[in-house]
Write a structure and sequence with these properties.
With about 350 residues, the protein is an alpha+beta fold. It is built from five helices and 20 strands. Strands 2-9-12-11-10-13 form a six-stranded antiparallel β-barrel. It is rod-shaped and about 135 Å long.
């Protein structure tokens, strides 16, 4: 009986300590989190490829026959006009043939005139006149052939462009097919690159592309898709896409390797920072602040771009989501928000409940 007051006092002290723990738990502050408002952002599917630059028009001029070069009429890397003479080959024999053919044509025409006059007086037959007509026509044809042979020995530029470096000199005897120069119209560039068949549905003529070259890493070159090859490569299962790029400054050269980016399926969607997304299995979640408490919401995500995640379904514009402090939260837990002013959407989009909180 003497120990009874001591036991009662011990029980009272124990009960009192238990009350202290509960009070301490109630006094523990809610976790501090950072929130942002879900806002609309522009998302673009990107298709990347590597392409080869080609001239808008390009041709290699060659010798049509075996002959000696009389004159070369271009400088290394110079610009030539359409129709400008590039090279002239020896044509002395053909000139002589032309002179002979012209003389025969004149003689044949004179003889034809005399026969027609005699026929009008009844002293020549129609058969004789017809025969002379054929002879005159043959002489004219021979003259035309000689002129064509001479023209073949004058090589002209088929279009305006820039010529390659000269590797041959006047006076050299060249064989048929010997290259004189390559003329390239590089006022614009044709950029050819391959796109897998699985992505062809996202590629259409008229789409914008951005290309970069190793020579100019800080300068993007913009163009548009001109055409898509209707036939796929059976080995790679890819189609060749041709884009057209303006090249007024002539920085792009035929043969360059360029990295190509196609912007396809541009759209505006709800977006949140990547830090706001948590995962559990195949599901994705965000914590939405609702009346001072964190509520876990299932969301369907899309693509990631520039630190943002596209939200396909599950959020509305203006909802406030937790970005920092997500790991400390459970569903329904009370929270304190830091920097809430920065997390509030524009007044036109601010829900009334968010303003009150």
């Amino acid at each position: 009986m003497r120990n009874l007051p001591i036991l009662v006092l011990s029980a009272a002290l124990t009960a009192g300590c238990g009350g202290c723990d509960a009070a301490q738990q109630k006094a523990r502050p809610a976790p501090l989190v950072t929130v942002v408002a879900a806002q609309s952002a522009r998302f673009v599917d990107r298709i990347e490829a590597v392409g080869t630059a080609r001239a808008n028009e390009q041709v290699t001029l060659t010798a049509p026959v075996t002959q000696r070069i009389v004159r070369l009429n271009f400088d290394d890397g110079a610009y030539v006009q359409r129709g400008q003479v590039i090279a002239v080959l020896e044509a002395g024999q053909q000139s002589a043939q032309l002179a002979q053919a012209n003389a025969r044509a004149v003689e044949a025409r004179q003889q034809l005139d005399r026969l027609e006059a005699l026929k009008a007086r009844g002293f020549a037959t129609r058969s004789a006149v017809d025969s002379q007509v054929a002879i005159a026509g043959q002489a004219r044809a021979q003259a035309a052939e000689a002129r064509a042979l001479i023209a073949d020995r004058v090589v002209r530029a088929p279009f305006g462009g820039w010529v390659s470096l000269r590797n041959i000199s006047a006076g050299a005897v060249v064989g048929a097919g010997t290259e004189f120069a390559t003329v390239s119209d590089i006022s614009r560039i044709k950029l050819d690159f391959a796109v897998p068949e699985t992505l062809l549905s996202r590629v259409q003529p008229g789409q914008t592309i951005v290309a970069t070259a190793a020579a100019y890493p800080d300068q993007p070159f913009r163009g548009t898709i001109g055409s898509v090859d209707p036939v796929l490569n059976p080995q790679t299962r890819a189609a060749t896409v041709r884009a057209l790029l303006a090249n007024g400054d002539r920085k792009l050269k035929p043969g360059m390797l360029l990295t190509v980016v196609i912007e396809a399926a541009a759209r505006t969607s709800i977006a949140v920072p990547e830090l706001a997304i948590t995962g559990e299995g195949e599901k994705s979640f965000v914590f939405v602040i609702d009346q001072g408490k964190a509520r876990r919401v299932v969301v369907q995500t899309g693509m990631r771009q520039n630190g943002l995640v596209e939200i396909v379904d599950g959020l509305s514009p203006g909802q406030r989501v937790v970005t920092e402090g997500v790991v400390k939260l459970t569903d329904g837990q009370a929270v304190r928000t830091g920097g809430t002013d920065n997390a509030r959407p524009k007044a036109a989009e601010q829900p009334r409940a968010d303003r009150a909180s």
